[in-house]
UniProtKB/TrEMBL annotation:
It comes from the Bacteria. Its main location: membrane. PANTHER family: MULTIDRUG TRANSPORTER EMRE (PTHR30561:SF1), SMR FAMILY PROTON-DEPENDENT DRUG EFFLUX TRANSPORTER SUGE (PTHR30561). GO terms for molecular function: transmembrane transporter activity. The chain crosses the membrane at residues 26-47, 59-80, 86-104. The lineage of its organism: Bacteria, Bacillati, Actinomycetota, Actinomycetes, Streptosporangiales. It is found in: Cell membrane. Keywords: Cell membrane, Membrane, Transmembrane, Transmembrane helix, Transport. It is a multi-pass membrane protein. InterPro entries: EmrE-like, Small_drug/metabolite_transptr, Small_multidrug_res. One of its GO terms (cellular component) is plasma membrane. Belongs to the drug/metabolite transporter (DMT) superfamily. Small multidrug resistance (SMR) (TC 2.A.7.1) family. This is Multidrug efflux SMR transporter.
Length: 107
């Protein structure tokens, strides 16, 4: 159950960050509200996942790493941002770090 909550926390964070970009510096109220609600939801779900005994280092690495990778891809596909070989390398390093943290394990 903790991993499911974490997955929804990641999805909420990705939605919020996408909305943050679309809010254009908080000048579009609708996207600003989506961003705020998404971040509140994301942190709430992350906190509940941690309460179910996920290691904080692993949970945060998965949460931030998956969110970073997803946002980079969304930025390239939907927001007109560039995805260079160097950015792709960085995403792969993040994924590798998350895998190492999970293999180092805890529970």
């Amino acid at each position: 159950m903790a991993w499911i909550l974490l997955a929804f926390a990641i999805a909420s964070e990705v939605l919020a960050t996408s909305a943050l970009k679309l809010s254009d510096g908080f000048t579009h109220l609708g996207w600003t509200l989506v961003a705020a609600a998404g971040y509140i939801t994301s942190f709430t779900l992350l906190a509940r996942a941690l309460k179910l005994h996920l290691d904080v280092g692993t949970a945060y690495a998965v949460w931030s790493g998956a969110g970073t990778a997803a946002i980079a891809i969304i930025g390239a596909l939907l927001l007109g941002e560039t995805l260079t070989p160097l950015k792709i390398s960085g995403i792969l390093l993040i994924i590798g770090g998350v895998v190492v943290l999970n293999l180092a394990g805890g529970h």
